[in-house]
Amino acid sequence: MVKSELTSSFFKTYLSYNESTGKFFWLERPDSMFDDWRQARRWNGHFAGKESGSVNMQPDGYCKIKIGLVGKTFALHRVAALYLDLIETYGNNKDIDHIDGNPLNNKAENLRACSRSINLRNHKISSKNTSGITGVSFHRNSGKFNASVRDFSKRISLGYFDTIFEAACARRSWELLRGYTKRHI
Asked: What is the Cα–Cα distance from 118 to 48, expressed in whole angstroms?
């Protein structure tokens, strides 16, 4: 089994997905998945119908699930994307973006498949930011506010402005033209 080539049919053998809550639940497994019928009864009695996914919380906030028979761990948002037909295989090169920025919210309405560059546009403001606005900083030498952006790892200055409001407007105009989300303000 190559993890990156798995499709939704593999996961649908083990899990059910509730699109409105974003939760996964273990399905009952047939006796054929176990060494004997006693193991099947024990497993099904303990897990079938219960929520899955809280097994392996990652430091980055994403929730993963380990599926016993295959002994591999899977990110739940990527599994949800398979159920929603956002991607064709688990290892698809598209990112799965949590629109609201909450990695635990795997509801259908909160997930979208996108490129890495689009996904990076939907990130929280940096903890190092002192102006409170992404891409706006105070330039001490000129006494003005600078609005800048990074586009494909290249820094682009949008200009220097007398007020933070003007700099923020310049930055936001640039973002809106390039498809940034509301959360990226």
From this structure: 38
